[in-house]
């Protein structure tokens, strides 16, 4: 069944971090606008958009400017913390591009978005073999949920790119640049450029 990539609306949760496809993210939710959003997502069994904040909320502002590209977040688990705040575990799924944003009365940003085309499985090129080796080394050293990933994923250019973008100590600006690249090979080329400064 083809994935729907037609324009639609998506509530936004701007954050000072970049959510990448396939990556987990823990959130603490306390603002009424976002609690309302989570309830709405639960009722509709839908996700919400996470975008990097480009301009902080300041005096007299009810929202911060968000990046034009983001990732849909799907709720995997939730709980109440010891402080009574709602905690969420979400995972990034589809990338999207924001067409325009309107602000609800409660301050929630709702965007009209276009879904980015799903990335096909593409085999890693020889010039990117170093990146697969690097990822294996990181997982062998630090473990984590990807440590037991199936062999085929280590030959998948898209998966390698997203996991390195997630796990390497990159600046948010660089992660956002990687998120906005549509071609997995081009994304790996960019990672190779970043390695000398970031690894």
Structural shape: globular
Largest sheet: spatial strand order: 1-3-4-5-6
Strand content: 25-35%
Nearest-integer average pLDDT:
89
- Give the distance, in angstroms, between the N- and C-terminal Cα atoms: 40 Å
Order of helices and strands: EEHEEEEHHHH
Q: What is the helical fraction, as a range of percent?
A: 25-40%
Q: What does it look like?
A:
- With 199 residues, the protein is α+β, with helices and mostly antiparallel strands.
- The protein has helices at residues 32-44, 129-142, 157-167, 172-179, 184-198, and strands at 8-15, 24-29, 48-55, 65-80, 86-103, 109-115.
- Strands 1-3-4-5-6 form a 5-stranded mixed β-barrel.
- Strand 5 (86-103) and strand 6 (109-115) form a beta hairpin.
- Helix 2 (129-142) packs across helix 3 and helix 3 (157-167) packs parallel to helix 5 (184-198).
- The chain starts with 7 loop residues before the first strand and ends with a helix.
Task: Name some characteristics of this structure.
alpha+beta, 199 residues, 6 strands, disordered N terminus
What's this, in brief?
With 199 residues, the protein is an alpha+beta fold. 31% of the residues lie in helices and 32% in strands. It has 5 helices and 6 strands.
